[in-house]
Amino acid sequence: MKYQRIARESVTHLFSNGRSAFEVAIEIYSRHNPSENIWTDLISYMKHGFIVTRPHLFCMVKPCDYNGERCWFIQVVVGNLVEAISCLPYRLPKLIFTREDEPGFRVVDTQRLIELAENNDRKTQQVNAS
């Protein structure tokens, strides 16, 4: 048999339970960036940046320049930051981001942030295993 025709109703989507990371990102925008529009930013990042989307992960990043050094500017991440960074097409030495409740930006060393996040994940796993 070359292929089989089936009714659309007979297909069950595996990731249809709960909210997706993208839905959470929409909520974050509406709650913390009311003057910004996620749809406008989404189009901009589709044209000039990178978007990673999975049921459990959503991020929008762009390469930028900070003090003569190329960095990733992280607009939004919902999900595991290390997984998001690992999805980028290449590594840059620094990351720039802002936190919801803080003015201004943070500039951090990419490798240092990955190490901190991985250590935190290990500690969380050890606590959960106890």
Provide an overview of this structure.
The chain has a 5-stranded mixed β-sheet with strand order 1-2-3-4-5. The mean pLDDT is 85. The protein has one domain (19-129). Strand 4 and strand 5 form a beta hairpin. The protein is globular. It is 38% helix and 25% strand. It is an alpha+beta fold and 130 residues long. The longest helix is centred in the last third of the chain and has 20 residues, at 110-129. The N and C termini lie far apart (51 Å).
* Helix share bin: 25-40%
The largest sheet is:
5 strands, mixed
| Share of β-strand residues | 25-35%
The whole-number mean of residue pLDDT values reads 85
Widest beta sheet: strand line-up: 1-2-3-4-5
Q: State the shape.
A: globular
In short:
This protein is α+β, with helices and mostly antiparallel strands and 130 residues long.
